[in-house]
Amino acid sequence: MANKLEDKQYKMETIKLALFLGELLIKNGAETYRVEDSVLRICKSRGYNHINCFTTPTVIIISDDKFDGLCFMKTINTRGMNLNKISMLNSFSREFVNKIDPDISEEIQELHKIDNMKTYPSWFYLLGTGLGSASFAAMLGGNQLNTYVLTVLTSIIATYVYDKTIKYSSIVMFSTLLSSVIITALGVLLHNIGLIPQPSALIVGSIMPLLPGVSFIKSMRDLISGNLVAGTSRIFEVFIIITAIASGVALVLGIGGL
User: What's its membrane topology (predicted)?
Assistant: First the structure.
């Protein structure tokens, strides 16, 4: 272990491993405290006790306050939510700590495998979103068969448009605004042609998947745990998304005169 501590190349590889782990945790929706705890656990397990980690939803910085001054930074442009990958990454960090002399290159390959794991098929994801939205609509009074089926279809269309838009633009507010406009426009149109008795249940139910509930909870946890920068950033993102949803709905209802 003493030789490893003095090996600068090994130290750099270890920090790069920790940086990659932190990046994957952020990309898959992990809380700030979980990211920093995992990164520091990786470094301390190899005897590097002078490592500092600074994390926000868009960047992670790892530095060493000793004389060599090593510092690594990675910006994160896209973020999502995958609890399965978060669980696997958390297990990876705990298993790494218990290894005596791990091969860093092999461990990085293991992280690449987790990163490249396929998620649920698109049709399954869209169908689940549609059924969930229709169930919300039913609880709000849209329990007629026509309303339920059309809410499923509306939510699937809006989710598909959101995913495609965010893939090419990476602008959350624009994607949310566009999806909200589509949902509200379809709700008003279906109501005007007499297919549903009222558009409110369909609109509210279809908008539910767009609401940033998880981001709001994570922002509160970050603020409570003392991560003020990350917490403030997340809560600001929540307000932006809510504003985009409200603007999209208001735009269509204003034009439609409802």
Answer: Multi-pass membrane protein
